């Protein structure tokens, strides 16, 4: 019980600062990828910042692992935490945890269940799409035979992939780009399913409540 309390206190204290650090990480990575005229000195500075921030994420994970007292079972129970350490660009997806941390400071949730699901899924789609577009552009734009040669191409490809449309007009050709594509397709199906399912449930519940409120006929 003490270990769980210690882990909860650590998470509440560090979740928001680390979320801001993850946004800074994403910003530094985006500048390195998109700013073609950036000097090597500034590139080295941004690279050093990203490595320092990644070190913070790793230290946070190790501290929570140590406080949990669960050993290797902690890794199996917190797969998402391990993934965002290995892929720091996805760490902003932990915005869900940020909301839960803030919510615990108040007596009740500010958003309904359906609104939370839709808001989480929408923010996750934007963050996942931006991170994926950056990664694919970085891997593809100068590859032989690449069809994704500008960041605009990468954004277009990301939108069609996340929405599972897949026009096929531009496609990744590198192993990294195709790996990201698989993750984007899986993430797109999951996020779209969450949004459409929540919206459908909300509509059904609304009509059900309206029917229950209607006075009985003569």
Automatic annotation (TrEMBL):
Protein keywords: Ion channel, Ion transport, Membrane, Transmembrane, Transmembrane helix, Transport
All copies of domain Potassium channel, residue ranges: 131-204
Coiled coil regions, renumbered to chain: none
Compartments where located: Membrane
Topological relation to the membrane, as annotated: Multi-pass membrane protein
Isomerase recorded as keyword: no
Alphabetized SUPFAM superfamilies for the sequence: Voltage-gated potassium channels
Membrane spanning stretches: 45-63, 113-137, 180-204
InterPro entries documented for this protein: K_chnl_dom, VG_K_chnl
An annotated GO BP: monoatomic ion transmembrane transport
Entry protein name: Two pore domain potassium channel family protein
Organism: Streptomyces katsurahamanus
């Amino acid at each position: 019980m003490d270990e769980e309390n210690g882990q909860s206190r650590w998470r509440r204290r560090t979740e928001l600062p680390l979320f801001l650090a993850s946004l800074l990480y994403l910003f530094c990575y985006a500048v390195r990828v998109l700013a073609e005229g950036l000097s090597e000195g500034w590139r080295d500075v941004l690279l050093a910042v990203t490595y320092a921030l990644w070190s913070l994420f790793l230290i946070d994970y190790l501290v929570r692992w140590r406080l949990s007292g669960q050993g290797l079972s902690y890794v199996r129970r917190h797969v998402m935490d391990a993934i965002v350490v290995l892929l720091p660009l996805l760490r902003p997806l932990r915005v869900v945890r940020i909301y839960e941390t803030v919510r615990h400071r108040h007596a009740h949730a500010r958003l309904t269940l359906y609104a939370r699901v839709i808001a989480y899924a929408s923010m996750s789609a934007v963050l996942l799409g931006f991170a994926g577009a950056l990664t694919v552009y970085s891997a593809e734009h100068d590859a032989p035979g690449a069809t994704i040669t500008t960041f605009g191409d990468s954004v277009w490809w990301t939108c069609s992939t996340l929405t599972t449309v897949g026009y096929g007009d531009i496609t990744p050709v590198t192993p990294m780009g195709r790996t990201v594509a698989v993750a984007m397709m899986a993430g797109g199906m999951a996020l779209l399913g969450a949004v459409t399912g929540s919206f459908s449930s909300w509509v059904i519940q609304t009509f059900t409540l309206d029917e229950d409120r209607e006075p009985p006929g003569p």
